[in-house]
Design a protein that fits this description.
It is a single chain. The chain has 8 helices and 7 strands, in the order βαβαβαβαβαβααβα. It is α/β, with parallel strands linked by helices. A 7-stranded parallel sheet has the order 3-2-1-4-5-6-7, with helices on both faces. Helix 1 crosses helix 7.
Length: about 260
């Protein structure tokens, strides 16, 4: 996409102060997009991402908002439109995971994942759609996980359920918003080397997991956040104008490899 098909577009990327969200924000900026960098807690990291976007010659704004809070989402979207003029692209990236034994999992941990991963996507999409419908265009990309399709570690049942919900929401929102010229699609990454992937693990445990995942992946390695970001950029561009309600896996062939090995 060297011809910058995203030139002068405006994107809102939730949870973009680090990890996959950060890579998405930077990739969109590299393709000519102005970006609202959203964060929940770490404003300092969000400001660093915004600084990188500005260094790429694009506009950036930093807005703190908890996507589980309807009023904060309303303000997030309103402020993005006020400061950047419009919203052409929404990336629902904000997400959390709690690893635990299903039988010992607390209700709070499950509800936290449900509220961030699923309700956050619901609130943000509904609010942004109010602006996209009148302009008769828009790209909405939800970040799910292969865990929501069928591949998951033990101890992450709650996470898998919420990501499966995101995938189904993508299909249903495609039906609701497609007639308005809005494409809704989903990216389902496999194991990606980020801070979130290492939650609750020692350095040794994380390295061991990466090695194990690589061994059951066709490409024999784990992915980098930038590889997810490039797929999001494609789905944000006019090249994806006739793609709607779809889920693209970015897992190095891991799902097919396991199916072949079964």
């Amino acid at each position: 996409m060297n011809d910058k098909k995203l030139q002068d577009k405006v994107a809102l990327v939730t949870g973009s102060s680090r990890g996959i969200g950060k890579s998405i924000a930077l990739e969109l900026a590299a393709q000519g997009t102005d970006v609202c960098v959203n964060y929940t807690k770490n404003r300092e990291d969000a400001l660093k991402v915004a600084s990188q976007i500005k260094s790429a010659g694009r506009r950036a704004d930093v807005i703190g908002a908890d996507v589980t809070q309807k009023s904060q989402v309303e303000n997030l979207v309103r402020e993005t439109v006020s400061k950047l003029g419009r919203i052409d692209i929404l990336v629902n990236n904000a997400g959390i995971i709690h690893f635990s034994d299903y039988f010992l999992d607390s209700e709070k941990e499950f509800l936290d994942m449900f509220n961030v991963n699923l309700m956050g996507t619901f609130y943000c999409t509904r609010e942004v759609a109010k602006y996209m419908i009148p302009q008769k265009s828009g790209k909405i990309i939800n970040i799910a996980s292969v865990a929501g399709i069928g591949i998951s570690e033990t101890g992450s049942t709650g996470y898998a359920v919420t990501k499966a919900g995101v995938i189904m929401m993508t299909k249903r929102l495609g039906i609701e918003l497609g007639p308005h010229g809005i494409n809704v699609n989903c990216v389902a990454p496999g194991y990606i080397k980020t801070d979130m992937a290492g939650v609750g693990k020692t350095v040794e445990e994380e390295a061991k997991q990466e090695k194990r995942v690589a061994e059951i992946t066709m490409m024999r390695r784990v992915a980098k956040p930038e590889e997810v970001a490039k797929v999001v950029a494609f789905l944000s561009s006019s090249d994806s104008d006739f793609i709607c309600g779809q889920t693209i896996t970015v897992d190095g062939g891991r799902m097919n490899f396991l199916s072949r090995s079964a």
